[in-house]
Amino acid sequence: MTAKEWLEILESELKKLPKAEREGIISYYNEMIADGLECGKDEQEIVNSLGNPFDVASKILQENGIYQKAGEGNQEFYQTPPPRKNGLPVWAMLLIGFFGVVVGIPVVVSLFAAWLAVVISFWACFIAFVVSAVGCALGAIVAIFMGIVGAIENGWAIVGACILGTGVCSLLSVGFWYLSIGFGKLTVWVKKLITERGKKA
Amino acid sequence: MDVQLKRGLLDVCVLAVLKQGESYGYKIISELSPYIEICESTLYPILKRLEKSGCVTTRTAEHNGRLRKYYMITQMGKHKINEFLSDMDEFVKVHEFIRRRNV
Asked: Is the confidence metric ipTM above 0.90 for this complex?
């Protein structure tokens, strides 16, 4: 192989590199070859000492973050991110992952179910309260107009009591609402704790 | 030799060559090869790295009707050499410690 051929192979193998980068490399090797010849070295000797141009090219591509498919000759290149460094050995990660699944999922699922139960029962109570209060008030009003209740004042007293009940219920519901939000947040936090541990591993 | 260790050594070796004055690729290799294994394809990324980190600067000049790239050491490069030497002093102490206990 002549020095010219060597350089041609290198250049064609480095097609995937940005032009400026490639030109820098080619002029570097051009200079190396010219300096070698100038020092009285034989062209063949220089080419031999430079090594296989395919190998040189694939090393350069690797250094530039371009990886070659194994055994794929020298044509197909594809870009892959450098392998992620893992702190723990594989068996430890598997163990932690296993425990995460065995312990973590039931914990998260049961917490979520409990939260859902709290929310549903809250709404059920709230709706029941309001409906019964409104129903009661309406009943009292109807009773007043039909003259069923002995004294009109008694009828209105029932309506007032119902309205008061609705108000108290609404106030209680605010507290209950925050309680359910807090519980939901707790569930999310526990889930995060477990999944992030898994990720770190 | 450990790959990482050798890479670090080569960086400082190249800087040490340049401390004596500007030089170019072929000459750097000829000066270093009696002391440490280095070839054309290993030198290129080293020069690139040193240039990127500001340890060397370059200039291109004509030589025998062609272009040649010259490398010069910077203040930061000189600082890198001193840093390496003081690290090595510590290293020698640890080396002595380990050696004495390895009988």
From this structure: no
